[in-house]
Amino acid sequence: MNKIVICGATSAIAVEVAREYxxxxxxLYLVARDGERLSTLASDLxxxxxxxxxxxxxxxxxxxxxxxxLARIKDILGAIDALLIAYGVLPDQQRCEEDVxxxxxxxxxxxxxxxxxxxxxxxEFAKQERGTIAVISSVAADRGRKSNYVxxxxxxxxDVFLQGLRNRLFSxxxxxxxxxxxxxxxxxxxxxxxxxxxxxxxxxxxxIVKAIDRKKDVVYLPWFWIIIMAxxxxxxxxxxxxxxx
Length: 245
Ligand SMILES: NC(=O)c1ccc[n+]([C@@H]2O[C@H](COP(=O)([O-])OP(=O)(O)OC[C@H]3O[C@@H](n4cnc5c(N)ncnc54)[C@H](OP(=O)(O)O)[C@@H]3O)[C@@H](O)[C@H]2O)c1
Prior knowledge:
single chain; Rossmann fold; binds NADP nicotinamide-adenine-dinucleotide phosphate; globular; two-stranded parallel sheet
C-alpha cells in the first residue's frame, strides 16, 4: 500500500491509520475541513516517515465537489492503492426527533455524501482493477435503538451499500472493507461516560490497517463486538422494543 487517500483525515481514528501508513513510507492524500489541523497532521506524518503528504480542505458533505476532488487526487497520485472514508457525526437523537431537517442533514453527512464518494471512487477503482475501499461504519448499524436510531440508520444504509459494492467490485479485483468499531475514545464520544467497553483510537487504527492487509470484508473493532452484536441482533423484536438500551 503506497498511495492512500483519507477522507475525514482529522478524525482521531483516521489519524491513527495515517500514522501506521506513514511509518510504512506511504504517500498520503488527506481531505478534511480544518486546514490548520491538516497541516499539523501533515508535518507529524512526514516526521513519522511518510514519502509525501498532500492535503485538501473540503467540506465532504457537499456532493457537488466530489468529482473535482477525485480528478485532483488522480492528477497528483495517479493510481490509488487505498481509500479510507472516516468522517461522520454523532447527532443529537432528541433534536432529530423534533426537527426533520436535523435528520436530513445527518443523513447527508453520514450516508448520502459517502455514497456519492463511493460511487465515483468505486468506478475509478473498477477501472484500475485493484485497490481497497475502506469505510468506517459502526456497530450501531446492526440494530436500531431508541437512544440513537438516526445514527444507526445512517450507518446501516452504508453497510448495505457496501455489501452491494463489494459484490460488484469483487470481479474487478477491488477489495471493499466495512469497518465496525464499538465505543472509541475520540472527540465524537467526549460527552459520554467512559467504561470498560471503550477502546483507544490507536488500537482501532491498527485494527483497520490489519484488516486492509488481510483483505477482510467486515471487521468489528475491537474483535469482541462481533459477539456482543450477535447477541444484540438476535434479541427478538417483541422483547427488544421493551428494552432501554
Ligand atoms: N468514536 C466512536 O465511538 C465511534 C464508534 C463507531 C464508529 N465511529 C465512526 O468513526 C468515524 C470517525 O470518528 P471518530 O470517532 O474518529 O471521531 P472524530 O475524531 O470526532 O472524527 C469525526 C471527523 O469527521 C469529520 N467531519 C464531520 N463532518 C464532516 C464534513 N462535512 N466534511 C469533512 N469532515 C467532516 C470531523 O471534522 P471536523 O473536526 O472538522 O468537524 C472529524 O474529523 C466516524 O464515521 C464515526 O461515525 C466512531
